[in-house]
Amino acid sequence: MTRLATPALRTFQSLWAMEDLPTAAAPWTLEEQIGLLVQAGYAGVAVDLGARRAPTAEALALALAGSGLERMVFTFAGTTAALDEALDYAARIEARDMVLCASVYPDEPREAADLVAGWHARAAAAGVHLELETHRNTLTNDLRFTRRLVDELDPAVRLAIDLSHYIVGAEIPAEPTAEIEEKIAAILSRAGSLQGRIASRCQVQIPLHHEGSQPWIALTRRWWRDGFAHLLAAREGAAREEPVTFVTELGTTPYALVDADGVELSDRWAEARQLIEWAEADLAAAARTVPLPA
């Protein structure tokens, strides 16, 4: 049986995840951040409009000029007007990708799906590919609600999967129950992209070099492989060869753990590169499991 060739991993780094690097006392400038992303081989940069130090569209466009980096916008929008503001920002930095953390909380999945479908179509009309993120304190906060939501979502709507929010938010054990596995599998079946962060059931972001982190790394990577496999299997024709998007998003405090002096316990910049290496290996492993149609 012919198997799918492994697509390239299209890596983005969140600017929010570069705040307070290399240290909080002497952080990189925006221009230095962009230069480092180019040197590290990233395909693009993601800007979270809700971040403490989110640059203006004008400043970011100027810093990105000539860099060759693609652009992505993250927005916590709760109204159509807020979405339109994010789309305007995207237009000014020439971004063609957007991740929506929907700050709306309908009780019924059908109502939520209709709202997201409308916003997805609105973004598409503006020339922007929009994905709905799995994120705490948003529409997709609850694992079980989101499992019901995926059954109602328009087929065109894909998810930007950040597993860390479910692992910590639902206090998922390192050996999940069958009920949790089913719900995660259903959510992964709608993956459009994946995000890089390792959580435990009690902390949203844990150091990768700690021995106690290893079970959570193993769990997350297993689900990454499943998500990549679902994403690839859903593609048709020439789309099977297109790059797969992966966003590294290791946040500054309070996401990052610190010691008694406020010094972070790990090097987030180096850890982002480690996450990419793992994701590349997991994407390759996933591609080997996806047969091409006869």
Note the overall shape. Answer: globular
**Rg calc:** 18 Å
At CATH level 2, the architecture is Alpha-Beta Barrel
The residue fraction in helices comes out at 25-40%
**Percent range for β-strand residues:** 5-15%
Number of helices: 9
Largest sheet: 8 strands, parallel, barrel
CATH class: Alpha Beta
For the record, give the distance between the C-alpha atoms at the N and C termini, rounded to a whole number.
9 Å
Low-confidence stretches: none
Elements, N to C (H/E): EHEHEHEHEHEHHEHEH
Q: How confident overall, as mean pLDDT? A: 97
The structural domain count equals 1
CATH level-four homologous superfamily name:
Divalent-metal-dependent TIM barrel enzymes
What is the β-strand count? 8
Structural class: alpha/beta
- Could you tell me the CATH topology label: TIM Barrel
Strands of the biggest beta sheet: in what spatial order? 1-2-3-4-5-6-7-8
Describe the structure.
Helix 8 packs across helix 9. The mean pLDDT is 97. Strand 7, helix 8 and strand 8 form a beta-alpha-beta unit. This protein has a single domain, classed as TIM Barrel, CATH 3.20.20. Strands 1-2-3-4-5-6-7-8 form an eight-stranded parallel β-barrel, surrounded by five helices. It contains nine helices and eight strands. The protein is an alpha/beta fold. Helix content is 39%, strand content 14%.
